[in-house]
């Protein structure tokens, strides 16, 4: 669906739309794309990948890649990530996985601990991408 301003576009892939969540997968404003936060949920389901922080982190990053690909983008388009961790002691383990998803320049990033995430997740990552 397009916003009255032709500069704003609400992006939802068919797979995402089937989940029936009350927010857009991503929103494009001009050449900037704002991705909603991603959890480590199994694609098409509202259940988390099993195996702890590294498994959830991998699934989260794969979910981000899938969202980007659905809208013609790659991880190389990301310029900023915000990471929310249920346990800051898992920051190092998350970073091991996170690093493997980027080559060359790394996006700007913030990370903070929180007291709870949807589905009881261990982490959530939201990103901003720019289309050149």
Task: Describe the protein's architecture and organization.
The chain is globular. By secondary structure, the protein is α+β, with helices and mostly antiparallel strands. The protein is built from 3 helices and 6 strands; from the N terminus they run βαββαβαββ.
Key features of this structure:
alpha+beta; 60s Ribosomal Protein L30, Chain: A; 6-stranded mixed beta sheet; 3 helices; 23% helix
Strands side by side in the biggest sheet: 1-2-3-6-4-5
Query: Number of folding domains?
Result: 1
Number of strands: 6
Task: Identify the overall geometry.
Answer: globular
Relative strand content? 25-35%
CATH topology: 60s Ribosomal Protein L30, Chain: A
Return the average pLDDT rounded to an integer: 91
CATH superfamily: RutC-like
Given the helix and strand composition, which structural class is it? alpha+beta
Indicate the CATH architecture. 2-Layer Sandwich
What is the alpha-carbon Rg in Å?
Answer: 14 Å
> What's the number of helices?
3
Q: pLDDT below 50 for ≥5 consecutive residues: which ranges?
A: none
Main sheet properties: 6 strands, mixed
State the helical fraction.
10-25%
Task: Describe, in short, the structure shown.
Helices cover 23% and strands 26% of the residues. It has 132 residues and is α+β, with helices and mostly antiparallel strands.
Please write out the topology.
Elements: E1 8-11, H1 14-17, E2 26-29, E3 32-35, H2 53-70, E4 78-85, H3 91-99, E5 108-113, E6 123-130
Parallel strand pairs: 4-5
Antiparallel strand pairs: 1-2, 2-3, 3-6, 4-6
Helix pairs in contact: 2-3
